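Intended use. Records like the one below are meant for learning the mapping from a protein sequence to its folded structure. Do not use them to infer anything beyond what is encoded.
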Amino acid sequence: MRRILGMATTLVVWVGAVALFAVGSNRKAAAGPDLRAPLRQQSSADSRLVAWVVLGANGQAIARAITSRSNCPIIELDNTRYQMSLRAQAETIPQRPTTSDPSQSRPSVFPVTTCEYFIPAGTQTAIVSDEAQQRLLPLPKPNPQRIVILGDTGCRLHIGDPWQACNDVEEWPFRTIAEMAAGFEPDLVLHVGDYQYRENKCPVDIAGCVDAGWGYGWDTWDADLFTPGAALLAAAPWIMVRGNHEECARAGQGWYRFLDTQPYQTNRTCNDPANDAVANYNDPYTVPIGEDTQVIVFDSSKVSTAPLQPSDPAFVNYQNELRRVAELAQARPKALSMWANHHPLLAFSPLPGTDVRPGNPALLSVMYATYGDRYYPPGIGLALHGHTHILELLNFSSNHPPTFMMGNGGDNLDLNLPDPFPTDAHPDSDFASAVNVRLDASGRAEVAHTNMFGFVVADREGDREWTFRAYTRHGRLLTTCAFVDGQSSCSDIGFLHEPPKRRATK
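Structure written out for the chain above:
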């Protein structure tokens, strides 16, 4: 479906997304604030309230709320009030081993309470409120027509990498991207992972990030996701994919408190390293997108960068997850199954010069051992990734699903891919070299790519047919890709240049 981009002023409401199985039962509230009464002017002493909707397994809509109060807020569903259930209480978690030196890490402080509530299908309105504030939540539509897709959105503060200017919207444009994408009025948002990057303290001589929060506590999650992403979090329910920055030795504690799709349990918090072998893996699940499409979410957050041996516990975990994906795809054989994980698989990452790096060798080694040179389980029609900080849209002449990589959502950008793109490159060159990039009539590789900041908008066009449009951070159209009959065809391929300063009408 095509719609004119409405750029009306967006009411900033705190909303976001993730699916999970709630702790505690949904309970009707005996009393609560009058949601229809005018709210008083807030003072600096008033509590903080963040609220959002997330889609989990089978499209279950779950309301989440973060509050600086100790008690959970009220949720009103179609004029009936209920008490939200506690997910995680406020606490300071002792410092655990991280990917940084202990001297460059610190305890994770979460001075907020996280709450949740399952929203029944067919609910028309949902409002979360405390004594002073209320948040109107976006609810899922039965047949979503428009999806915003983005990833790798946080601001990089990490020793050994260039320090990103988190205080400069030009250098870290996630807020701009979120507000622009919200203006497209999506029915759904899909984030392909990596939300929080503020791992180490910014040096005092780096003006662009001096005094920025760092570590893995609430202040950094708020600064990297909830505050700059407010407009987009308010626009639609989200599907959230876990990235490598959300593994246990990094921002996994916040992932489980705020975004994960499973119950908040002792062995799934990333608080105790002894439980990392459990908490670094999650079972795949599906989110239906109407009757003809579904997203299958796959957790690759802890995947390594070297091929795995069958005796490796990680190999066993991923193989079991792949087989579960096959079951999920086969359960709806007539639907288009979009695979969504963070790390690129049948895709390329740039290297200096004219060479390219193939897809992740660890996960591909398991896929190759399980499904041969097809790699994906049967039934996968399209693959969505992030991780490499570029936009990359790939089509293949071999029998493999097209791949769209959207890692240009805000973090420091990577190098561009070579242009012209090498026509003899294979994303599975570490294995069978059986995946061939399609060539157009002139012999050019059908790879559209750029390292400009931006996002993608997918519009439903028909039964299992979608149009994907890639935009810059300012909403300028880069290319349009039609997905029909399992193949993608883009209007512009090769390196995508900055277009004229006008927005496209869709």
